[in-house]
C-alpha cells in the first residue's frame, strides 16, 4: 500500500516497478476519493483529500511514468474519470467532487496533446451506468443502487479494449465504457448485470445510449 499524495512514495513505486519488470507500458489512474456533499456541508479536509488524490494524484503518477512510457512500444495512460459536462445539475449538488474528477479528465486532455509526438496515449474511461462498487453501496444508494448496477468486469473489459489499441491512433478521448464495448462488437450486456434492476445512469452522464444500455 502507498499514499498517492506522497511524491516520494509514488516515485519509489515507479522505480520499483521498473526495477522488477524492466519497463512500464501502461499506467492506470484508478485511485479516487469521493464525497458528494454540497458546498456548505463539505469539510475543507475532505475537499483537499479529493483534490490531492484525484486531480493531483493523476497528475503526479502520470508525470512519474512518462519518462518510462516514452521508451514503450505502445504506451498508454488510462484514467478513470468522466466526460466533462458543464450541465449545472452535475455541479450544483457536489461541486467539490466534480472539480476533482474533472481535474483528472483535464489531465487526460492536456497530456494527450503534450505527449502526442512521443506516441503516449492518454485516455479517460467512465461507465454510462453505475458499477457495483463499495462507493455505490455506501454512498450512492445502498442495496437499491446495487440492484441497478453493472459488474466491474464491464469497465475492465472496456479498459482492455482501449489498451489494446495503437497508442498513436487512440489518444485524447473521454470514453464511455459501454460505447467502447459496442465498438468492440458487444451486443449483449446482460452478462454484465449485477442484479435484475434496470441499469441506472452514472454521475456526469447526460444520457444512456439505448443500444449500449440494454435491460439485463
Describe this structure in words.
This protein has 216 residues and is α/β, with parallel strands linked by helices. Strand 2 (75-79), helix 3 (95-114) and strand 3 form a beta-alpha-beta unit. The protein is globular and about 45 Å long. It has a single domain, classed as Rossmann fold. Helix content is 42%, strand content 9%. Helix 1 runs parallel beside helix 2. The protein has a four-stranded parallel sheet with strand order 1-2-3-4, with helices on both faces.
Keywords:
alpha/beta, 216 residues, Rossmann fold, 42% helix, disordered C terminus, 4-stranded parallel beta sheet, 7 helices
What's the mean pLDDT score? 92
Cα gyration radius (Å): 17 Å
| Tally of separate domains | 1
User: Widest sheet: strand order?
Assistant: 1-2-3-4
Categorize the overall geometry: globular
**What is CATH's topology name?**
Rossmann fold
**SSE pattern:** HEHEHEHHHEH
Q: How far apart lie the N and C ends?
A: 36 Å
Low-confidence residue ranges: 212-216
Q: Give the helix level as a range of percent.
A: 40-55%
The CATH H-level superfamily is NAD(P)-binding Rossmann-like Domain
- Which secondary-structure class do the elements indicate? alpha/beta
- Per DSSP, the total helix count is 7
Question: How much β-strand is present in the residues?
Answer: 5-15%
- CATH class annotation: Alpha Beta
Q: How would a textbook summarize the main sheet? A: 4 strands, parallel
Total number of strands: 4
* CATH architectural name: 3-Layer(aba) Sandwich
Amino acid at each position: 500500500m502507498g499514499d498517492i499524495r506522497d511524491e516520494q512514495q509514488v516515485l519509489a513505486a515507479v522505480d520499483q516497478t521498473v526495477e522488477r519488470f524492466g519497463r512500464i507500458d501502461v499506467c492506470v489512474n484508478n485511485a479516487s476519493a469521493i464525497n458528494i456533499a454540497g458546498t456548505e456541508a463539505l469539510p475543507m479536509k475532505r475537499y483537499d483529500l479529493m483534490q490531492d488524490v484525484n486531480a493531483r494524484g493523476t497528475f503526479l503518477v502520470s508525470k512519474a511514468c512518462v519518462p518510462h512510457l516514452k521508451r514503450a512500444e505502445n504506451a498508454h495512460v488510462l484514467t478513470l474519470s468522466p466526460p466533462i459536462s458543464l450541465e449545472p445539475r452535475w455541479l450544483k449538488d457536489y461541486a467539490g467532487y466534480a472539480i476533482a474528477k474533472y481535474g483528472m479528465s483535464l489531465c487526460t486532455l492536456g497530456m494527450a496533446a503534450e505527449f502526442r509526438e512521443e506516441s503516449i496515449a492518454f485516455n479517460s474511461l467512465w461507465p454510462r451506468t453505475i458499477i457495483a462498487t463499495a462507493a455505490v453501496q455506501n454512498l450512492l444508494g445502498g442495496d437499491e443502487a446495487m440492484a441497478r448496477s453493472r459488474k466491474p468486469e464491464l469497465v475492465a473489459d472496456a479498459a482492455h479494449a482501449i489498451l489494446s489499441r495503437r497508442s498513436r491512433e487512440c489518444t485524447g478521448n473521454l470514453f464511455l465504457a459501454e460505447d467502447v464495448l459496442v465498438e468492440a462488437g458487444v451486443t449483449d450486456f446482460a452478462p454484465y448485470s449485477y442484479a435484475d434492476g434496470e441499469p441506472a445512469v452514472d454521475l456526469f452522464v447526460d444520457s444512456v445510449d439505448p443500444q449500449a444500455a440494454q435491460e439485463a
